[in-house]
Amino acid sequence: MSFVEGDSSPLPISIYVDGSCIENRNVGPNTAAGWGFLVVIGDRGLGKGTGDLIHEESGMVVTDKESTDWIGAEVGSNNTAELSAMIYALKWAITQCPNAPVTIRADSMYALKITDGTWKAKENKVLANRAQEMWKEATNLIEINSAHVRAHAGHRWNERADHLAFRAQSNEGAIPLQFWKPGQR
Questions:
Q1: Is residue 185 part of a domain?
Q2: Residue 2 falls within a domain, yes or no?
């Protein structure tokens, strides 16, 4: 964990999450969708890309109930991708951030409000319940909150999360950060 010199309190951690699904109008179990999240220490949340990127992760939304990677998604969609990103980000936060304040930042109000229990899921109920369980577990173990970020508004870390999710749903690896430019999918 990084600390400010002369200060014993850990730097704040921001986790940016996003989901992607190109074929979002006609979704089903075989519709490709991807999720991504990244972790930044010392981010101010202003969109200028401050702080240090310490971790990023992404993957496909798994809809096969027989798979050991299945977390509840029945279809591939933007919403199931966003909720999947929340779940994986919360899992990471629980295991890696026991003593630091964490802010989950997402451009999906749906994912934020379903995960924290403010909204009730009408669809994707198994996945939504899993996200809510992870949120409850996280809030019991660490200091955590959430914040909305405007999508596709040039916010560097949100654009990077979008890149990770888009590349995952396309089954492509992410462009290394040093070669990537905001807005590049």
A1: no
A2: no
Q: Which domain holds residue 157?
A: 13-179
CA distance 144 to 112: 12
Q: Which amino acid is at 3?
A: F
pLDDT of residue 132: 98
**Once rounded to an integer, what is the mean pLDDT over residues 50-73?**
96
Q: What angle do CA 74, 75, 77 make, to 5 degrees?
A: 140
Question: pLDDT tens digits, residue range 153-177?
Answer: 767 899 999 999 999 999 999 988 8
Model pLDDT for residues 109-119, shown as the tens digit of each residue = 999 999 999 99
* 8 assigned to some structural domain: no
Residue 107 maps to which CATH number? 3.30.420.10
| Residue ranges of E strands in 21-101 | 34-41, 52-60
> What three-state secondary structure class fits 132?
helix
- pTM given for the model: 0.91
Count CB atoms within 10 A of the CB of residue 7. Answer: 8
**CA neighbor of 61 nearest in space, from 91, 93, 21:** 21
In a domain, 3, yes or no: no
Q: CB of 47 within 8 A of CB of 182?
A: no
Nearest alpha carbon to residue 145 among 93, 180, 71, 82: 93
Structure confidence at residue 4 (pLDDT): 40
Count up the domains in the chain and report the number.
1
